[in-house]
Design brief:
By secondary structure, the protein is mainly beta. It is built from three helices and 24 strands. This is Phosphate-specific outer membrane porin OprP/OprO.
């Protein structure tokens, strides 16, 4: 569902109009069914992007004369249940993306939230940012490594053992409930994650963790690509579809430190894609990336900690809301190959894959108003480069002859202004 500018403005005005009512609770109690306390939650997000394109045309809907994208980003509906006993369950669906979210059941041993067994579809043991709540993301777009290398939700079973300050977990999984075509990473696999918070108390938290995932590629194909930190835009770094692939192996490091209203967070990921039949020097493709970010709650609220991820507080003053400012540096490298020319005048052939490199800076402001509303404004500055041979992509400087041969490394340095309106309960 596409939203026009006028539709988004009307939606914003309608939301503001409802704010004269008292603040609602974060979830709606439904009933107690079979000794299970059932609640209903929801998340609706509308995004707006204004592009200052450089080389690639960023508009997701093609060369329509616009300089931006305006669309509903998420429309999540979630039922949750507590009980009977130490059992918890969840069933979620995203009506915008037409896909299932968390659909699982969990048994907590002794009521300990960090010692449990879980079966169904859930977020896999990868990426501190992905495991955190979507409604409380620090920036509109998640980091490049999160969106590119992250597995997201898969069907499987997980066991976690730990306490308030540490845990180790292992997961076995297969595909996602909602089918997607190849080359999405839907093969079966396994993963582990461990974390430790040696400092955790009085508004002061220090967390370190690591994860590893090993899974089969789907249809013996893999593809790694990234958008310029704008969820609705076209991707500007891309390996293309790599055939003759066997397994993906991703290693991640994560850490954050929070002291009162300040938080510094960073992650590093490296992915290796095993390939076969390409000769001794081209059997593994390797890519990596990282980000580091800082966030300050100007209005003084302190961050929390739960199950190995930071938590965002409610505003101290609901009527005035909580204001945040943030800065993030993000980098990803999808190059692992070289150019080969059979003769000095022949067109080059890529050995391996040259997906490109991208560095980005994001400056953001967030406003949490009362208990159910959030407004975000980000400015993203991108510096990228990618080898382009004969391409079928559409470019801002050449929208008509978009199949011409470049045979060169092309720089692409767009700037993007992003806004998000969010309502959740």
């Amino acid at each position: 569902m596409n939203l026009t500018r006028s539709t988004l403005v009307l939606a914003l005005l309608g939301a503001i109009g409802t704010l004269a009512a008292p603040a609602a609770h974060a979830q709606v109690a439904i009933d107690v069914i079979a000794d299970s306390e059932v609640t209903f939650e929801g998340l609706v997000q509308a995004d707006m992007y204004w592009y200052d394109a450089d080389f690639a045309l960023l508009n997701a809907d093609g060369p329509d004369g616009r300089d931006g994208d305006y669309e509903m980003r998420r429309a999540e509906l979630v039922l949750k249940g507590k009980g009977p006993g130490n059992i918890e369950w969840v069933m979620g669906y995203d009506a915008k993306a037409d896909k299932w979210l968390d659909v699982n059941a969990k048994y907590k041993f002794g009521g300990n939230g960090n010692h449990f067994v879980q079966v169904g579809q859930y977020k896999q043991l990868m990426s501190l940012e992905e495991l955190s709540s979507t409604k409380n993301n620090d920036f509109i777009a998640k980091a490049s490594i999160t969106n590119t290398f992250g597995l997201g939700r898969r069907l499987g079973g997980m066991y976690q053992y730990g306490d308030n300050n540490w845990a180790i977990a292992a997961s076995m999984y297969t595909r996602e409930l909602t089918e997607h075509p190849a080359p999405t990473p839907h093969g079966p696999g396994w993963g582990v994650r461990g974390y430790w918070a040696p400092i955790n108390g009085n508004g002061n938290i220090f967390h370190v963790g690591a994860s590893y995932n090993d899974y089969d590629t789907f249809g013996d194909a893999a593809q790694w690509r990234a958008r310029p930190l704008a969820d609705l835009s076209n991707r500007i770094v891309d390996t293309g579809t790599m055939r003759n692939t066997d397994r993906n192996k991703t290693f991640g490091l994560e850490s954050f430190w929070a002291h009162g209203p300040f938080k510094v967070q960073g992650e590093y990921m490296k992915t290796e894609t095993e390939r076969y039949g390409l000769g001794p020097n081209s059997e593994t493709f390797s890519a990596d990336g990282a980000y580091i970010s800082g966030l300050w709650n100007i209005t003084g609220e302190s961050f929390g900690y739960k199950n190995g991820v930071p938590t965002t507080p409610l505003p101290n003053n609901p009527a005035g809301g909580m204001w945040q400012v943030g800065l993030r540096y993000d980098t990803i490298d999808l190059n692992d190959g070289a150019l080969f020319r059979a003769t000095p005048t022949a067109n080059p052939t890529v050995l391996g894959a040259l997906g490109g490199e991208m560095d980005s800076w994001t400056v953001g402001v967030n406003w949490y108003w009362r208990s159910n509303f959030k407004f975000m404004l980000d400015y993203v500055m991108v510096d990228s480069s990618k080898y382009i041979g004969r391409t079928s992509a559409t470019y801002a400087e050449d929208p008509i002859n978009n199949n011409r041969t470049f045979n060169a490394v092309v720089d692409d340095n767009p700037n993007i202004l992003e806004a998000r309106l969010q309502f959740y309960w």
